[in-house]
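I am hoping you can look over what I have pasted underneath with an eye to the fold:
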Amino acid sequence: MNRKDHKGEVTSKVLEDSTALIVDFEKLRKVAECQDPVVPVIVQDADSREVLILAYANERALKHTLESGLATFWSTSRNELWIKGKTSGDELKIVEVRVNCEQNSLLYLVRLVGKGSCHVKDGSGQARFGCYYRRIKGEDLIFL
C-alpha cells in the first residue's frame, strides 16, 4: 500500500483513508509543544460504551464542556477551542464527565446527536461513527 501521496509526503488523507499502518509516534511530542497545558480525553458512547475519540482538553475546554453540556476540546494542532459539532452538526451531548485516579485524564460519556463523531467521512460522505474504524491485521489496516 502506498504510504505517501504523489509528492512523497504522508498526508492526513493518506493517514485517514488508507489501509497502510502508519502510527504517528510523534503525536505526544507535538501535544507537549502546544500553547496550553492539556490532558487526554477519551470520548465514549454512553450506551454502547464504544470508544469514539481520543482528544485533549485544557481548563477552558473542560469548563465549556461542563457549562454547555457539549463535548469541547482543545485543538492541539490549531491551538484553539474545538466545540465538537459546531460546524458539522454532529454534536456530542455530555451524559457524564469522569476523571481518572491521578486526575491527569478525562472520560466524557456522551450521546451522539448526528450521524458520526469522527471528522473523517466514509465512502458515502457521512461522518464515521467513531475514530476507531480500522483494525490492525499484520502490517496493514482493515476497515470495519
About this structure: The chain has a mean pLDDT of 88. The helical segments are 12-17, 27-32, 59-68.
